[in-house]
C-alpha cells in the first residue's frame, strides 16, 4: 500500500464528524462533545499529523513528548492495510520505534490494531462516557519487533 497522504487538520476534523461513530476516541478526541476550535487546538498542541490512506481511511499520529521515538496512532476503521502503511511511514520518516493506541472494546478500529501486532497492556476503567454509559478504554502497545508484516491483512483465528 502507498504511503498515507497528509491532510489539513481542519479537513480531518470535518472527516471525523462524518464517521459513523463520530470519531469518538480518535487520538483522544470526542467530536460529539468537543467543538471544532477546541479539537484543532488540541491536535495542534499534541503535534498531531493526520492522513488519509489509499482506501480513504482516516489515520492519525502524535509523537510522545517524553519519548520522540514513540507515537500514539489512530485508525478510523478496521483497515489493517491502512494502519500498516501509517506505521511503515512513521518508521521511515520519523524513525519511530514503538507505538501506542487506545480503544474501547466496541471500536471498529480494534481488529486492525490487533492484526498489526498491538497487544493490550492496560485498562482505564470507566474512562469515557459514550452513549449514556461509562466505558473502559484499553491501552495497546507495539514495538517495531511486534509488528506483523503488512501482507494481506488477513485475520487471525
Helix and strand succession? EHHEEEHEHEE
What summary fits the major beta sheet? 7 strands, mixed
Poorly predicted regions are 151-157
Helix content: 25-40%
| C-alpha Rg (nearest Å) | 15 Å
**Number of E-type strands:** 7
Protein structure class: alpha+beta
Shape: globular
> Which assembly state applies to the chains in this document?
single chain
Total DSSP helices: 4
Strand percent estimate: 25-35%
Whole-number mean pLDDT: 88
Strand order of the largest sheet: 1-2-3-4-5-7-6
Cα distance spanning the termini: 24 Å
Give descriptors for this structure.
157 residues; alpha+beta; 7-stranded mixed beta sheet; 4 helices; 7 strands; 33% strand; disordered C terminus
Outline of the structure:
With 157 residues, the protein is α+β, with helices and mostly antiparallel strands. Helices cover 26% and strands 33% of the residues.
Amino acid at each position: 500500500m502507498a504511503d498515507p497522504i497528509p491532510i489539513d487538520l481542519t479537513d480531518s476534523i470535518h472527516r471525523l464528524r462524518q464517521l459513523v461513530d463520530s470519531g469518538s476516541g480518535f487520538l483522544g478526541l470526542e467530536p460529539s462533545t468537543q467543538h471544532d476550535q477546541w479539537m484543532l487546538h488540541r491536535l495542534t498542541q499534541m503535534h498531531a499529523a493526520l492522513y488519509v490512506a489509499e482506501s480513504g481511511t482516516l489515520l492519525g499520529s502524535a509523537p510522545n513528548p517524553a519519548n520522540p521515538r514513540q507515537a500514539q496512532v489512530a485508525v478510523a476503521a478496521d483497515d489493517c492495510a491502512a494502519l500498516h502503511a501509517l506505521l511503515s511511514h512513521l518508521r521511515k520518516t520519523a524513525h519511530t520505534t514503538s507505538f501506542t493506541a487506545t480503544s474501547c472494546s466496541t471500536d471498529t478500529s480494534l481488529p486492525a490494531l490487533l492484526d498489526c501486532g498491538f497487544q493490550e497492556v492496560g485498562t482505564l476503567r470507566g474512562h469515557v462516557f459514550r452513549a449514556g454509559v461509562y466505558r473502559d478504554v484499553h491501552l495497546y502497545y507495539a514495538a517495531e519487533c511486534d509488528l506483523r508484516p503488512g501482507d494481506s491483512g488477513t485475520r487471525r483465528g
